[in-house]
Design a protein that fits this description.
heterodimer, A: 268 residues, mainly alpha, MetI-like fold, 2 strands, globular, B: mainly alpha
């Protein structure tokens, strides 16, 4: 009990509060902080790297959330039908999820560069390659995970609902649209939330796959914050301000999601 | 007629799934195959199978392990991961039990702060946390275990609390009447019941800590590198002179233990994912 609280206070609560305080300061080490009000925030919002990272991250997140959930849902449907070898397929599809972000990034770096080598370029040639590389990587990593959650959700739908729909003469598509999807809403909410926050906070994969190349065009928010902290002398305060903005966006997404979920729960 | 159509559809689906499964496995397979190729035959033609000329045997494993201090990094990662998850499971179980059973404004506030910590992105606290850790001299392979305790507490306490609530209070009261002190009560009654959830929490934490890069990089630096840190350094620190063969061997060494771990306790991992998702 006490060690948990001590560790939690020392390594989370204290740094969190210090972080908010320092975002209003200019500093190079924590001990020489000097209050400058909203100066860091002004700098962050006029920093083209930050704005580009925000745009890149948002676009990437939207594309990933849609593709990951669509594929994961289709796979879950397939694996809950009467097909052979379900367990083997589930095992295989889930596997990439166990691999760490850095390793994932380098695996795909090797593969994508191997393909692009045929055209005489590599992944740092265009931001487009980096973007779609990250999308493919994220799909490969997360589809299995979300699929498992969708399968659990599908198995929880009472069988008689489908039978009733069949007796009423519903087509397959009608059953899917009017029975399966509504009954699966809580799984859909969870998976959307997980892919949303995962994609938005992506760091390791980004660092290993492109490290922002070319010219920081594929740097996502987390990587841009990291670069501001450790790559630019005198900009630590701006880095911290960016981090606070980043935190507020993530908190907002989480809060909005929570609200939507709870309003749905009232309905059902 | 209807039946045969269904059968045909199902075998078509089977074929599609086999193709997809192959697609999912190929990236891992490519790394594995390349780890047996000579280092100059990897970049540019990663998709070629090793031939007589390019087959390197275990040479990459020898050179990769030697050059980058991978053996040390592997041991360190194992040490940190195992101890961290054990400490987390035991101590956060106690915390969860305490927070659920002692109903006060303070315990509610603490519980909510733990929940809150789950949504705070690491970048928000990484700079100041590194400062505190260095100040307190926790920047070593033992100290980092307590840093993981602090960072992992949110999810673990949250998942375990949900389960503590379902333990009937009568059980604990009966133990009290039988003369158990709180410590005995925890170890003899509460913890055994919590075990399934504790295992789930442990697996989720193990996957996180084994693969974690930025936290150990910031705290332990390159002197006490963990496996993900060693991999990143081997790539970035080499300035163009990357030993691709050794690098592939490193990737295999990072992947293999988790895959083996997964194949052995797959059931728990999948259950853990579902439980984590439903609660989170």
């Amino acid at each position: 009990m006490l060690p948990t609280l001590a560790a939690f206070a020392a390594f989370f609560i204290v740094p969190f509060i210090m972080g908010i305080y320092l975002s209003f300061n200019k500093f190079t080490t924590v001990s020489n902080a000097e209050w400058i009000g909203f100066g860091n925030y002004a700098k962050a919002f006029s920093n083209s790297d930050f704005l580009r990272a925000l745009g890149f991250t948002s676009l990437f997140t939207v594309v990933s959330v849609i593709t990951v959930n669509l594929f994961a849902f289709l796979l879950a449907l397939a694996l809950t039908s009467a097909v052979r070898g379900k367990n083997v397929f589930r095992t295989i599809f889930f596997m990439p999820n166990l691999i760490g972000g850095i390793v994932l990034g380098y695996i795909w770096n090797l593969i994508i560069n191997g393909v692009l080598a045929n055209f005489g370029v590599d992944i740092s040639y265009s931001a487009k390659y980096g973007f779609w590389g990250l999308v493919v990587l994220t799909n490969w990593q997360l589809i299995g995970y979300m699929m498992v959650i969708y399968i659990a959700g599908l198995q929880n739908i009472p069988r008689d609902l489908h039978e009733a729909a069949e007796i009423d003469g519903a087509t397959r598509f009608q059953t899917l649209k009017n029975v399966t999807v509504p009954m699966l809403m809580s799984s859909i909410t969870i998976c959307t939330f997980l892919t949303l926050t995962n994609s938005f906070k992506l760091f390791d994969q980004n660092l290993a796959l492109t490290a922002g190349a070319p010219a920081r065009k594929t740097a996502m928010l987390a990587l841009d914050i990291y670069n501001t902290f450790y790559g630019r002398a005198g900009w630590q305060g701006v880095g911290q301000a960016k981090a606070v903005i980043f935190f507020l966006i993530v908190a907002l997404i989480a809060f909005a999601q929570l609200k939507i979920t709870s309003s749905r729960e009232v309905e059902s | 007629m209807e039946l045969s159509r269904k059968k045909r559809l199902s075998s078509l689906l089977f074929v599609v799934l086999v193709l997809l499964a192959a697609l999912f496995l190929v990236p891992i397979l490519i790394v594995f195959l390349n780890s047996f190729k000579t280092k100059f035959s990897i970049m540019g033609s990663p998709f070629k199978l090793p031939t007589k000329e390019t087959f390197a045997g275990f040479e990459n494993y020898v050179s990769g392990v030697k050059s980058a201090g991978i053996a040390g990094a592997f041991g360190r990662s194992l040490f940190i991961t195992v101890l961290s998850v054990l400490v987390l499971a035991l101590l956060t179980s106690m915390t969860a039990w305490y927070l659920v059973r002692v109903k006060s404004a303070v315990s509610r506030l603490l519980y909510n702060t733990f929940l809150f910590s789950m949504i705070v992105p690491f970048q928000m606290v990484m700079y100041t946390m590194t400062f505190v850790v260095t100040k307190l001299k926790f920047n070593n392979p033992v100290g980092i275990i307590f840093v993981y305790l602090g960072f992992g507490a949110g999810l673990s306490v949250f998942m375990l609390s949900g389960f503590v609530k379902s333990i009937p209070l009568e059980l604990e009261e009966a133990a009290e009447i039988d003369g158990c002190n709180p410590v005995q009560k925890f170890f003899m009654i509460v913890f055994p019941i919590l075990k399934p959830t504790a295992i789930t929490v442990t697996i989720l934490n193990a996957m996180w800590i084994w693969n974690d890069y930025l936290l150990p990089y910031l705290i332990l630096g390159t002197g006490n590198k963990t496996l993900p840190v060693a991999i990143q350094i081997a790539m970035q620190g080499a300035y163009g002179a990357v030993n691709w063969g050794g690098f592939m061997a490193m990737l295999v060494l990072a992947i293999l233990p988790i895959i083996v771990f997964y194949l052995f306790c797959q059931r728990y991992i999948i259950e853990g994912v579902i439980a984590g998702a439903v609660k989170g």
